[in-house]
Design brief:
4 helices
Length: 91
């Protein structure tokens, strides 16, 4: 159980490193101060995560696992193709 928590934490940290939210938080910190920025960004992330967890829980109860799996695969495929096309300068 501890290894799973550590793996998720490390994966989340690496995935979020250098994203727009982090850069916005750093900018706010230089203007407003670290404590308010820390509290606000933490509450914002908790609220966003809670919404995602609630939506996932609701969909998980209402949709069959196979539909969720295929839907997630299709979404990743579409976004992957869009990113490749954007990177190639087509979009």
């Amino acid at each position: 159980r501890g290894a799973a928590v550590l793996a998720v934490g490390v994966a989340f940290f690496l995935a979020e490193l250098g994203d727009k939210t982090m850069l916005a938080t750093i900018t706010l910190d230089t203007r407003v101060g670290w404590f308010g920025t820390w509290v606000g960004s933490t509450l914002g992330m908790v609220a966003a995560d809670a919404l995602a967890i609630a939506a996932g829980s609701l969909l998980g109860r209402r949709l069959p696992e196979r539909a969720i799996r295929y839907g997630a695969a299709a979404a990743f495929l579409v976004f992957g193709v869009l990113l490749v096309l954007e990177g190639a300068g087509v979009l």
